C-alpha cells in the first residue's frame, strides 16, 4: 500500500471518529429533561418507594405487649375519662387491627400505583385533633420518607389512611377539605405521642 493510501485511510478513520463524536454530542440535548416522576421510575428509587411500611412501623410504634403493659398502668384517658378493663382490651385489639388495616391500604395502593393518601377518622379522636385534619393528604413518597405518617398514632386512635383514586391531582382539586398535610413545609409536621389515650366509644 502506498504512503498516500495509508494517509488516506487514516484521514478517513479520523473523519469517522469525529463524525461519531458530533452525532453522539447532538443526541443528548434532544432528550427531554427527566421529570421528578420519571426519576422515581427510572432511577431504581421506585421499587424502594413502593416498599411496604410494615418493617418501619414495627420499629416506630410500640408492639402489642408494650402497649398492653402501658394501658394496664393508666386509669384515665386524655379527656380524664376512666379507662375500664374492657376499654384496655379494646385499645389493644384495635391497635393491632388498625396497623393491619392501614398497612394493607398502602400495600393495595402500591399494587394500584396510588400516589396520594388522605386522612379520615372512624370515630371521635381528641388526641389527633389539632395535629391532623380530616381530608388532609400525604404523597406515597412522603410516606416512604416518613413512615411515621401511617396511623394509628396513639392508643385508641381512630385515624385511618385512604388511598386517593381520583383522576385529578389532589393539590389542584377544589374538593372541600383536601389539602397537603405538609403544606409548604418540607419537614415532618408534629404528630401525637402514642402514649396519649383516647377511650374507645
Ligand atoms: Zn388518633
Would you mind describing this structure in some detail?
By secondary structure, this protein is α+β, with helices and mostly antiparallel strands. It has one domain (36-180). The protein is 44% helix and 9% strand. The protein contains seven helices and four strands. It has helices at 3-30, 36-42, 45-49, 54-60, 64-72, 85-111, 140-145, and strands at 116-121, 136-139, 159-164, 179-180. Helix 5 runs antiparallel to helix 6. The site of zinc ion has 9 residues, from loops.
> How many structural domains in the coordinates?
1
Q: Could you tell me which ligands this complex binds, including any ions or cofactors?
A: zinc ion
Which sequence of SSEs, written as H and E, runs from N to C?
A: HHHHHHEEHEE
User: Percent of residues in helical segments?
Assistant: 40-55%
- Neighbour order of strands in the largest sheet: 3-1-2-4
Any low-confidence stretches, pLDDT <50, length ≥5? 27-31, 33-43
> DSSP helix count?
7
Number of strands: 4
Q: What is the general shape?
A: elongated
Amino-to-carboxy terminus distance: 98 Å
How would you describe the oligomerization state of the chains in this entry? single chain
Radius of gyration, whole Å: 27 Å
Mean pLDDT: 84
Strand content: 5-15%
Amino acid at each position: 500500500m502506498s504512503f498516500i493510501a495509508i494517509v488516506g485511510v487514516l484521514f478517513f478513520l479520523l473523519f469517522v471518529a469525529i463524525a461519531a463524536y458530533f452525532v453522539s454530542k447532538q443526541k443528548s440535548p434532544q432528550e427531554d429533561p427527566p421529570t421528578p416522576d420519571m426519576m422515581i421510575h427510572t432511577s431504581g428509587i421506585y421499587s424502594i418507594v413502593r416498599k411496604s411500611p410494615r418493617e418501619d412501623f414495627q420499629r416506630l410504634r410500640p408492639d402489642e405487649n408494650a402497649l398492653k403493659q402501658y394501658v394496664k398502668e393508666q386509669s384515665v384517658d386524655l379527656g380524664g375519662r376512666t379507662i375500664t378493663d374492657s376499654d384496655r382490651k379494646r385499645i389493644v385489639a384495635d391497635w393491632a387491627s388498625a396497623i393491619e388495616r392501614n398497612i394493607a391500604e398502602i400495600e393495595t395502593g402500591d399494587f394500584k400505583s396510588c400516589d396520594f393518601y388522605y386522612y379520615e377518622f372512624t370515630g371521635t379522636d381528641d388526641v389527633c385533633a389539632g395535629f391532623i385534619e380530616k381530608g388532609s393528604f400525604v404523597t406515597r413518597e412522603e410516606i416512604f420518607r416518613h413512615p411515621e405518617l401511617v396511623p394509628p398514632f396513639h392508643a385508641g386512635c381512630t385515624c385511618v389512611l385512604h388511598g386517593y383514586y381520583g383522576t385529578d391531582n389532589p393539590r389542584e382539586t377544589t374538593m372541600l377539605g383536601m389539602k397537603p398535610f405538609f403544606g409548604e413545609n418540607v419537614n415532618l409536621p408534629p404528630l401525637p405521642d402514642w402514649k396519649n389515650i383516647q377511650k374507645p366509644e
